[in-house]
Amino acid sequence: MTHQIKEEDGFKYIEAGQGETLVLLHGLMGELSNWEQVIDRFKDRYHVVVPILPIYELPILTLGVKALSRYLHRFLKYKNFNQVVLVGNSLGGHVGLVFTVAHQEFVKALVLTGSSGLYENAFGGSFPRRESYDYVREKVEFTFYDPATATKELVDDVFATINDRSRVIRILTMAKSAIRHNMAKELSKITIPVSLIWGKNDKVTPPEVAEEFHELLPNSELNWVDKCGHAPMMEHPEIFNNYLEKFLDRILLK
Predict the structure, then answer these.
(1) First-last CA distance in the chain
(2) Sorting pLDDT into bands at 50, 70 and 90, what band is 126?
């Protein structure tokens, strides 16, 4: 990761550029580096901020999607941000949805890619063979259309994380919270512009999930990325960034 992590008043985040603020929200197993090519593309025109969601720091008894939404609220207030564009992948998209339902006045627009909130084919509540490196590699490869996207560095990071007992308990707690918290009945409340940028071959949140989001979100557009899995901004960053740029031009420059 080429960008320095800032630490202030209990918040950790990356910040680059000036202009309208884009807040990028990572997924459950996501790293800030997942957004590196998005940051590099937009930092010359926008103020790009990537907070680290405190999945491993919040009290486990309160850990869940709503707790992360409350954290995001505290962070935006601390930074004095208003009318931001939230861009969320996987769990990050879910956090963005929960936050937007509660605090739509803070959000100018929302971008979801492989978001949970309706359905996800996750790890299933456990990691039965987490000591097996090959098993973990297969699980990471499952995330992508092209298994080569699951680099050794990425697999190593996931392997280390899920073999840390305190971390794996938190990951499973967080995953169960996301699965339980179905947002189908709340999405009609989100009236701001929403762009769905979705992998056509996503096996974690399959294409029908994107179609349901599109149907339930009253002011949404749906963009497909072919030969792409659960993280378009990693697997096809140029296509993802082109969709994002067109959306931003439409909603911010009109």
Answers:
(1) 34
(2) low
